[in-house]
């Protein structure tokens, strides 16, 4: 077979001619248009007068009460919770469902529009490393405390059902929260780690931190970071951790290292990993050399705890969230796990942050669905409303099923976690929680990307327009698969295949 050499001219000969003639006629018509405009403006009848812009304006999709409008959420709670518990928490959920569609939504939007900034030096050249956040971000801190978004499962007012109550609130909160859901996930993870740590009795700083993390008082409430990822590894922290912890005479440590991805850099405290330095200056390599540390981000004088913020990351999404590269140069820290037991100790924390990740994924799916469902009642194409087009509704139905599945799976993790919190989980339930948490995290994260992408399509061109607030949902969903370590993806696949 003889193959002709393909050149642009050979391949598109007609198109080139057509393209040139289109250009020529466009130039001509431009001349004509200019002439018309001159002529008509002289005549006092401009072609683009305000009266000729048209009278049709598409109604925007409306965000209603995210509790009373979500019958699936309500029916789940009715099915799972004892009657008295639901009766008691119902008014709060109803009220919160309204807030996430009104004032909390506005705070979240402000965070999207005014992302954090880093002021590294003051006017006189002094290093300050001040992360400036908008008012909405700071208000969300107070809202999180007042609404008990972290405290609910630790108060245990409703025993094992407290986690489901918290999960229902987080589910509604996260897509309105301007990514404040991220520091909350790490805060909850830190509270759980401290609760389970065998160092808590010994160290009053840990007890004190716990009372801040689980407080409902905005003035007392703290958030926590989790600074694990270093340049060499995020999923493989066992080999990636280069931070060195130098023991001090007073039982504290000084940390030296470079934390490559640190979200919620404006947090009050953090949990982090390092390798304790032996008297001869050596450290133990691999998993067995890793210890978990607790540290506060600021000293008592309000200055940073020997932390330099190198820069804020320029990210695809989650721009509301201050994610930074941090240099630790002698930061004071306390050992939180036994020496070399840092990796097993993180697993408690990861269970919580992965649970949050799944709830956030289910929440963003629900949000795009509830907006898409509202929009199909407002938008007409080809002479009828979208809701009257079977193919459109078939597409929405498909992603509604995915959304419900993600919700049920995530709530099952919440249910098991609630039992574990209260020491009421059987051995099987404990094992199931271990298995289900990373699978749910991975699966719902992948679903969230697909559902938000498909969901955006249902708004046509408007789904791509920033000031509708819609594209951010997809950008932010993109991060969910890699938050909180991704190596499990590879570890879980063989397990899933044998199920
Ligand atoms: C917006 C944002 C915020 C973040 N915030 C924080 C934070 O607050 N704290 C923090 O500690 N980290 C944070 N991270 C970092 C995040 O946790 C890591 O990026 C993530 O764990 C992946 O690590 P890595 O970047 O080193 O990628 P790598 O681990 O280098 O992964 C690269 C590739 O290798 C694959 N891979 C990984 N493990 C295996 C395996 N076992 N088998 C086969 N393939 C594998 C992965 O699937 C991936 O495709 C944040 C990241 C982002 C994007």
From TrEMBL:
Domain Acyl-CoA oxidase/dehydrogenase middle: 226-328
InterPro entries reported for this sequence: Acyl-CoA_dehydrogenase-like, Acyl-CoA_Oxase/DH_mid-dom, AcylCo_DH-like_C, AcylCo_DH/oxidase_C, AcylCoA_DH/oxidase_NM_dom_sf, AidB_N
Keywords assigned by UniProt, alphabetized: FAD, Flavoprotein, Oxidoreductase
Pfam families: Acyl-CoA_dh_1, Acyl-CoA_dh_M, AidB_N
GO terms, molecular function: acyl-CoA dehydrogenase activity
Family: Belongs to the acyl-CoA dehydrogenase family.
Protein name per the record: Acyl-CoA dehydrogenase/oxidase C-terminal domain-containing protein
